[in-house]
């Protein structure tokens, strides 16, 4: 099964220093590495944009951009954006705040039958409203 990887996981692996990670965060990075080896990871262009945004130094930006080029963006269709809007409306109707990016991740994951790999606790709230599956690390 394919795994749609959220910005929070990519960021742990690619933007943070290994020595600064907690033990649970290191575990998530190891899981990501295993999923990459298995060829199961998927990324959305908007996640790529989030990862590359806010980098102060051009050399760091270029290094990260080069790494991310190994992972092609998933092609999105009009129906993905419409489903994201609908997901956002459903989540908000339950009094839960949701970003445009998170709603898109939920919609794509749900419609393609992919699990979502995230460390963002908001996705647990979304899963109480939407038919999404969250990836649980295996070890």
Q: How does this structure look, described?
A:
There is one protein chain. By secondary structure, the chain is α/β, with parallel strands linked by helices. The chain has a single domain, classed as Rossmann fold, CATH 3.40.50.1010. Helix content is 55%, strand content 7%. The protein is built from seven helices and four strands. It has helices at residues 7-14, 23-37, 45-52, 58-68, 78-93, 100-112, 122-127; strands at 3-5, 41-42, 115-117, 133-134. The radius of gyration is 15 Å and the shape is globular.
Here the CATH topology equals: Rossmann fold
**How widely separated are the two ends?**
17 Å
Total number of helical segments?
Answer: 7
Number of strands: 4
Uncertain ranges: none
Largest sheet, spatial ordering of strands: 2-1-3-4
What structural class results from the helix and strand content?
alpha/beta
- Our count of domains comes out at 1
Which superfamily, in CATH terms, is the homologous superfamily? 5'-nuclease
Q: Summarize the biggest pleated sheet.
A: 4 strands, parallel
CATH class: Alpha Beta
- What's the overall average pLDDT, rounded? 96
| CATH architecture verdict | 3-Layer(aba) Sandwich
Helix residue percentage = 55-70%
Alpha carbon gyration radius: 15 Å
Overall, the morphology is globular
Quick recap:
This protein is an alpha/beta fold and 139 residues long. It has one domain: 3-Layer(aba) Sandwich (Rossmann fold), CATH 3.40.50.1010.
Task: Lay out the secondary structure.
Layout: E1 3-5, H1 7-14, H2 23-37, E2 41-42, H3 45-52, H4 58-68, H5 78-93, H6 100-112, E3 115-117, H7 122-127, E4 133-134
Parallel strand pairs: 1-2, 1-3, 3-4
